[in-house]
């Protein structure tokens, strides 16, 4: 009995379709186990979880802020863009009302109303930006730092829509044209990619503190949130601290002493 | 069949030339953006990173799925009146999906890297899923529309294996809105978007604005080429349009109730910004009200049987609904989602000229594809009708 051409083609067709479907299925299952492994790791309380505490009472003058901001921006080649609604900034100052929009602001003390607050990426424990990035250009390290790969980023700006803190920057202008000086130790960026604070992971890996913490001269604290003996845990437990927008459960790791 | 697109009158070629020139202009505007930056080429800023171009994604996935109610009635319920309209609906979906996908592509800051989405597939990102569902839907509509037309051309029934793809396309249609709505409605801190009925509302607007455009195109074709899909078919689609549109308006009312009765300021603020102004800013208030007025006009014209049956008022009503939804989904949905911004203040957004030119080119690509596919369809049907006449 010979197979008809038509039947033969049918069998081949089923075979090819079946293979493609099972490949796809295998791929999804493979990804699933990777995700499960990732969740397992996140539940691990023994590892390092970096956090920052900013003593907002200690920052008094314009120079106090400038020292911190300049230390970061110079080291990381952050361009100085004059267009304020399209600028690039990794760490900057804003008012209480804008930093904590869900907090009561009408009847608080005049001093707090006027006080400035340093804002930066919160390195959320459950970061929405990482959840939405289609190419894993932004991802969370095991020590909790939310990273940004500026060479993989496709510039879709989804992470900026997802970030509830306005901490992400898109390069609306050619960044290299707005650098007054350049640090050859750190890469510069191109048009159309997103960047943000990276908690100075490169310095932590060398056993140093982030640039901003170093430049603050004791007004900012940095350490391991999982270590009950760490300095950050001590200052958090001894003071009244706030985090930005706790109600949306992103679990920020930048704390503000009020 | 493709050769049928190569023969046409002066008007046909002038129209194609016009669309092609829009695409060329858009290409240069796009180059301009990638040379000088989105800072000068778009109105986007730190607090509003998705503007009216991503709005076109939201709107045109809706137009694309307009094929679903037509195709569903024809194949699942054997509604014979839709035989010609089904092919038009499928080919309109092809153009609309292309507009939707291109609208996203042109806003990428690094277009040469977009294949990273496939190189590093990320199931937890909705953009990945949007790419999957949109490209699948594009493929299904090209396949089904083309195969059915081709078998008609060859005077043979379409192959039985095509049934599988036809049913697949029907089931797949809604997924393109659901995934696109999920893109927005799952973001914490964007109050205007954080609503479970967004996907449902996307479906309702899709089944109204999309078929409304289909009616407009079908009547336009009838005027230009005497290719008639049939009065009864159009009337049935008009009823689908108005039912879906009423559901959309109801869902909008539910949104208003939840925001204002709960009294949660952050949920009220975007509605205030869009409809009456907020903190001294009222850039988009006129658009919001134009959309509402158009909705009222469309509702009246399509609800009353007399005006629905009359061709002029039917077309007017369809235009009203189409543009009402276009303003609401293509413009206000993005503006409202980003305003007030994450600091609960207002940074106004005005689309810039290059941004608009780029988008015009994207629309032109879609309409170019639709024109060519419609031209082929019409020529095929005309040649067959001629044969029937000659035989008689």
Structure, explained:
The complex is a heterodimer of chains A (about 260) and B (about 400). Chain A has helices at about 5-40, 60-75, 95-100, 110-115, 130, 160, 200-205, 210-215, 230-240, and strands at about 50-55, 90-95, 115-120, 140, 145-150, 170, 195, 220-225, 240, 255. Chain A has a single domain (about 50-255), classed as Alpha-Beta Plaits (2-Layer Sandwich). Chain A has about 260 residues and is of the alpha+beta class. The model of chain A has no long low-confidence stretch (mean pLDDT about 90). With about 400 residues, chain B is an all-alpha fold. Chain B has a single domain, classed as Formate dehydrogenase/DMSO reductase fold. Helices cover about 75% and strands about 0% of the residues of chain B. Chain B is built from 15 helices and no strands. In chain B, helix 3 packs antiparallel against helix 5 (about 85-105), helix 3 (about 50-65) crosses helix 14 and helix 11 packs across helix 14. The mean pLDDT of chain B is about 90. The chains are: A alpha+beta (about 260), B mainly alpha (about 400). At the A-B interface, helix 1, helix 5, helix 6 and strand 6 of A face helix 2, helix 6 and helix 7 of B.
């Amino acid at each position: 009995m010979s197979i008809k051409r038509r039947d033969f083609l049918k069998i081949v067709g089923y075979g090819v379709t079946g293979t493609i479907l099972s490949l796809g299925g295998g791929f999804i299952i493979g990804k699933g186990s990777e995700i499960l492994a990732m969740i397992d790791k996140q539940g691990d309380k023994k590892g390092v979880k970096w956090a920052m505490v900013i003593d907002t009472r200690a920052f008094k003058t314009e120079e106090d802020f400038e020292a911190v901001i300049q230390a970061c921006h110079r080291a990381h080649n952050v361009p100085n863009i004059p267009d304020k609604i399209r600028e690039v900034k990794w760490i900057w100052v804003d008012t209480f009302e804008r930093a904590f929009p869900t907090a009561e602001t009408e009847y608080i003390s005049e001093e707090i109303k006027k006080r400035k607050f340093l804002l930066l990426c919160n390195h959320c424990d459950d970061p929405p930006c990482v959840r939405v990035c289609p190419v894993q250009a932004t991802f969370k390290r095991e020590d909790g730092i939310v990273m940004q790969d500026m060479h993989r980023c496709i510039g879709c700006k989804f992470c900026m829509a997802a970030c509830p803190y306005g901490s992400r920057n898109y390069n609306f202008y050619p960044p290299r044209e707005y650098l007054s000086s350049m640090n050859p130790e750190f890469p510069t960026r191109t048009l159309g990619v997103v960047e943000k604070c990276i908690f100075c992971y490169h310095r932590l890996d060398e056993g140093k503190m982030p640039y901003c913490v170093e430049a603050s001269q004791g007004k900012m604290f940095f350490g391991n949130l999982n270590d009950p003996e760490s300095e950050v845990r001590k200052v958090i437990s001894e003071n009244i601290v706030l985090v930005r927008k706790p109600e949306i459960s992103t679990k920020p790791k930048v704390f503000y002493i009020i | 069949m493709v050769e049928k697109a190569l023969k046409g009158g002066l008007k046909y070629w002038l129209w194609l030339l016009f669309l092609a020139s829009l695409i060329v202009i858009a290409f240069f505007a796009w180059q301009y953006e990638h040379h000088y930056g989105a800072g000068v080429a778009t109105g986007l800023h730190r607090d509003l990173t998705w503007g009216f171009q991503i709005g076109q994604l939201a709107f045109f996935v809706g137009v694309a799925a307009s094929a679903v109610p037509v195709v569903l009635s024809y194949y699942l319920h054997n509604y014979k009146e839709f035989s010609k309209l089904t092919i038009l609906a499928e080919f309109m979906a092809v153009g609309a999906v292309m507009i939707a996908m291109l609208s996203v592509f042109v806003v990428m800051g690094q277009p040469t890297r977009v294949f990273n989405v496939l190189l590093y597939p990320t199931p937890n990102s909705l953009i990945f899923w949007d790419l999957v569902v949109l490209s699948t839907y594009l493929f299904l509509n090209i396949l089904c529309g083309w195969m059915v037309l081709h078998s008609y051309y060859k005077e043979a029934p379409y192959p039985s294996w095509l049934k599988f793809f036809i049913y697949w396309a029907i089931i797949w249609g809604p997924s393109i809105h659901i995934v696109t709505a999920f893109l927005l409605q799952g973001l914490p801190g964007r109050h205007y978007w954080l609503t479970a009925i967004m996907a449902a509302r996307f479906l309702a607007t899709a089944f109204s604005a999309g078929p409304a455009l289909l009616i407009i195109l079908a009547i336009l074709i009838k005027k230009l080429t005497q290719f008639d899909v049939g009065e009864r078919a159009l009337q049935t689609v008009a009823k689908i349009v108005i039912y879906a549109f009423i559901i959309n308006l109801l869902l909008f009312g539910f949104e208003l109730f939840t925001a204002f009765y709960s009294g949660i300021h952050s949920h009220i603020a975007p509605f205030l910004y869009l409809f009456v102004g907020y903190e001294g800013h009222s850039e988009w208030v006129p658009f919001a009200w134009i959309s509402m007025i158009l909705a009222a006009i469309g509702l009246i014209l399509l609800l009353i049987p007399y005006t629905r049956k009359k061709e002029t008022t039917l077309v007017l009503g369809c235009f009203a609904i189409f543009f009402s939804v276009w303003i609401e989904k293509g413009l206000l949905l993005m503006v409202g989602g980003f305003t007030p911004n994450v600091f609960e203040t207002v940074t106004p957004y005005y689309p810039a000229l290059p941004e608009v030119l780029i988008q015009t080119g994207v629309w032109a690509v879609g309409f170019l594809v639709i024109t060519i596919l419609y031209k082929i369809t019409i020529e095929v049907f005309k040649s067959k009708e001629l044969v029937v006449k000659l035989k008689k």
